[in-house]
Each structure stands twice: as C-alpha cells, then as structure tokens.
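Ticket #4471: structure output looks truncated?

Reporter: J.K.
Steps to reproduce: submitted the chain below (275 residues) through the standard prediction queue, then opened the result file.
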Amino acid sequence: MAKRQKESVNVGILGIGSCVPEKVLTNSDLEKMVDTSDEWIIQRTGISERRITDRNTPTYSLAVEAARQAIKDSGIEPGQIDLVLVATSTPDFLTPSTSCIVQKETGAENAAAFDIMAACSGFIYGLTIAKQFVETGYYKHVLLVSSEGMSKAVDWTDRKTCVLFGDGAGAVVVGKVEEGFGILSTYLGADGANGHHITIPCLYMPEEELEKRKNYENKIAVYQDGHEVFKFAVKIMPYATEKVMEKADITLDDVKYIIPHQANSRIIESAAKRL
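Returned output as attached by the reporter:
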C-alpha cells in the first residue's frame, strides 16, 4: 500500500498583543533604594528603566490584557480558541494555573489550558508546542501568552538582581497561514546541570538555597549567579540561532532580523559577536 503523503501546513502568528505596567522605575530611582548608580547599571546591563506593577496587580492581569489584544488582532472570536498556553515563572497561584484564569477572563470557554514553566525560554517552548498542535490538525487556534511579574520575585536590597528585572506580558494567536508565511523551524534545548545558577523558591527551600539568601530581606526572592548566567547565555544564544537556521535550511545571509531574548544589552551584544 502506498504511503499517504503528509499535507504541508503553514503555521504562523495571526495576532499579537502586549501589556506593560504604567509605573516606570528608573536607574535614578534605584540609586535611592540600593548602593548603585545609573552609570554602574548602564555599563553592566545597558538597562536604563523597567516597568513595575504595584503590589496588588497580579501577573495574570498583564497576561489577560495581552491575550485580549492578541485575540482581537487575530480577527477570530474567543470561542474559536482551542488551547490557551501561558509561559510564566512568576504565577500568582500554584493552582489554578495562570492559563485557566486567562481562559476564563478572555471568554475562551471552549479551550483547554495549561502553563509552561521554562523561564527565559518559555515563549519559544510555547510557540513550538502551539506550532505542533496546529500542524497535526489537533487544534486550529492556540493562544500563547508569556507573562512575568518579576518585581514581586526580587529582593530589592540585592543590587545584583533588582536592577535586572521588570514586569510585562506578550501574547500571540497561532494558526494556519498562507503559503510563503509562517514559522520555518524551532529549536529547543535544556541544560539542567546549570539550573542552580538562577533559582526562585517555591513551597520548600533546601538549606543550600537558604544559605544563598542569608543576606536577603526577602528569603524567597530570585537568586542569580550573574557571571555563570552570562557565560551560558553568550554561548547558547549563537548555538541555538545556528541550530534553528540549520533546521530551516537557511544561512545568516537569509536572515533580516534576529529578535533575541531581552536579557540585557551586554549579553545580546556579546552573543551577536559570536555569530
């Protein structure tokens, strides 16, 4: 019996949305909070300001607003969403999942929903999952949101981490697109051996994690070994870029723009030099 040929399906982004808080925290503001300066922060990170939510604004509220915009931009109705994915490392609850809250608040009543916890790479993991669901025909429309409320996860007395993070959300609706458009390829990877260099505690904190935070006022704040994270990022970003181009059968000459993870300008510039 002849093998049935797989129909080619082009999968891409149908709509986009975003949400950032109104409050801006500048480097000058941080100078009044910790032992730092605008010059010190700019030199090491390239960051001049970040958006911060107030204490009573949950992570999911940013996700919901970005999701609503993406659905509207896509031109489909909320009831046509088959799956809601939310990538976040700062959920407001362990349960219910942030995706379930987004599903309710956007009116995507027919959708399944689950969260993805993959830190900085969460959106790419989500995009890969969404692409595969649409490619196989299992779902027609997937709502993908990445939302973080890092301001609640940092210790504001630790100048090594509090200068780095802000709050915000982005969302896309993924579905079938016309020929000549869409996602060419994705590449996923992991390095669990280096996971201890950046951690956010949950219900249980081992003694070694408590020891890392012995000088923190907020004992459940994010901990980061900046030097190790920098070394890993500038190595893996060019590697992942080359792998995804290889899978798409293209070269750097074919690429017009590279949109990297927004770590900081020092990491991005160092990674770019390696390409």
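Triage note (M.O.): checked the attachment and the full token line is present. The CA atoms of residues 198 and 224 lie 4 Å apart.
Status: closed, working as intended.
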